[in-house]
Amino acid sequence: MTKTDPHRPTLGTTATRRHRRDRLAEMLPELRAQLEEQRRFRAEQLAALDGHADGTADETDARRAVDAAIAEAARWALHEIEAALHRVDEGRYGVCVTCGEAIGLERLEVLPHTRYCPVCQPA
């Protein structure tokens, strides 16, 4: 007998799978809008940081290090957002890229760019 993981949504019956699919289809426009808004924000954030990148004589090394860290995080987030939009376009959104199981709808609402279920999420 296979032990079920309480953190992994099970697909269950055909009716349960159909309900999840229908619910995801209902949520998809809002999730896509959230992803697109996040993409705009990150692109603007990177543009603002790039405008800073030239630096001024009074800019400290610490400030440049902070800006570099923020820019790296923004680039990573932008990559994840664009990958999520690509999965939406390909019909693979909401499925863990590691195990192929459904990602919980609640998780997608909180982290619309996630590619992993909680079990497969890297630490």
Word description of this protein:
- This protein has 123 residues and is mostly helical.
- 61% of the residues lie in helices and 0% in strands.
- The chain is built from three helices and no strands.
- The chain has helices at 14-52, 61-90, 105-110.
- The chain is elongated, with a radius of gyration of 19 Å.
- The model has no long low-confidence stretch (mean pLDDT 85).
What labels describe this entry?
about 0% strand, mainly alpha, Four Helix Bundle (Hemerythrin (Met), subunit A), elongated, about 120 residues
Question: What is the terminal separation in angstroms?
Answer: 28 Å
Tally of structural domains? 1
State the total count of DSSP E strands.
0
* Poorly predicted regions: none
What is the radius of gyration computed over CA atoms, rounded to a whole number of angstroms?
19 Å
Task: Please identify, by name, the CATH architecture.
Answer: Up-down Bundle
Average pLDDT metric = 85
Secondary-structure-derived class: mainly alpha
Largest sheet: none
What is the general shape? elongated
Query: What percentage of amino acids are in beta strands?
Result: under 5%
Question: Approximately how much helix is present in the residues?
Answer: 55-70%
CATH class type: Mainly Alpha
Which fold does the CATH topology refer to? Answer: Four Helix Bundle (Hemerythrin (Met), subunit A)
Instruction: Count the DSSP helices.
Output: 3
The sequence of SSEs as H and E is HHH
